[in-house]
Amino acid sequence: MKIFNNFKKTALIAPILMIAISSCNSDGPEIEQPEKIYYEQAQRRMAARNFYGAIESLEAIENRYPFGKYAEQAQVELIYAHFMNSETEASHSAAEKFIRLHPRHPNIDYAYFMKGLSSYTRDREFLTRFTDTDLSNRDISGAKESFSELTEFLTRFPDSQYAPYAKQRNVYLRNMIAKNELAAADYYITIDAYVAAIRRANYVIENIPNSSENYRALKLLETSYDALGYSELLDDVRVVININYPDEESRQPSRQRGWSWNFLNTTKPVRPN
After folding, report:
1. Residue 41: which region, alpha, beta or left (left: phi > 0; alpha: psi -120 to 50)?
2. For a Cys staple, 113 with which of 26, 61, 162, 273, CB 3.0–4.6 Å?
3. Cβ(96)–Cβ(103) under 8 Å?
4. For residue 152, which of 119, 127, 129, 130 has the smallest C-alpha distance?
5. What is the pLDDT at residue 244?
6. Share of the chain above pLDDT 90, in %
C-alpha cells in the first residue's frame, strides 16, 4: 500500500516537474526592445558584416515602430543591407517602396541609385569578376533595366555624391549591351544573314553612342556590305573607319574590365541630422 501511495504521488508530481523544467529551458516571450537599441544593434551587425542579422533588426524597427524616430532611416538602410546580403530583388523592392513613401527624404537620391544598381548584379559574382567570363553573350535584360534606371537617377540627381559611381557603372553596362547586340550580328554573319547583321550593327552605332564597340560595329557593316555587293555603302563605311579609327587595325584587342564594387563596402546611406 505504501508503494502504491508513493507511485501515486510521483505520478502527480511528474507533470509539474516537466512544466517547470520546460519553462526553465525556453526563452520565454520575446522582450520588445526600445527602437534605439534595435537601430544600434543593426549598426553593430552591419559593421561586423552580419547583414542577415542587420536585416532582422531593421525590419523590427519598421514593423514595431513604423512612426518612430528611426523608422525612415531603417527603411533606407534595409536597401543597403539586402543588397550586401545578395538579396538584390529585395533591395530593389525596398528602394521602390522608399521612393514611393518618402519622395522628399534627404536620402532619396541613394534610393534611386540603389534601385538602378540592384537591377543587374550578375558581374558581382566571384567567378565573373576574376575570370574571363563574357556576360555579353547571356541574357542582359537586367542590364538594360539597370542602365535605364541609373540614367533616370543621373537625370534627377546630377550632383549626387553617388553620381560618379552611376556614371562608371553606366559606361560598363552600355558597353556590355553593345557587345550583346554585336554577338548576335556575328552569328547572323556565320549563317549569311547579312541584312540582319546590318540591322544589329546599325542599332549599336545609332542607339548606343560612345560605346567601346563602335569600331567593331563598323567592321561588321564592312563585312556585310562587301558580301552583299553594296559597293557605295562599302566605300562610305570604309571612309568612316579610316577617319575615325586610323590606328585601330594595329591595336591589340583589349578585354573589358568589370566595374568595381569595392566602394559598396564603405558607402551606405548617412543618417540626416
Report:
1. alpha
2. 162
3. no
4. 119
5. 87
6. 59
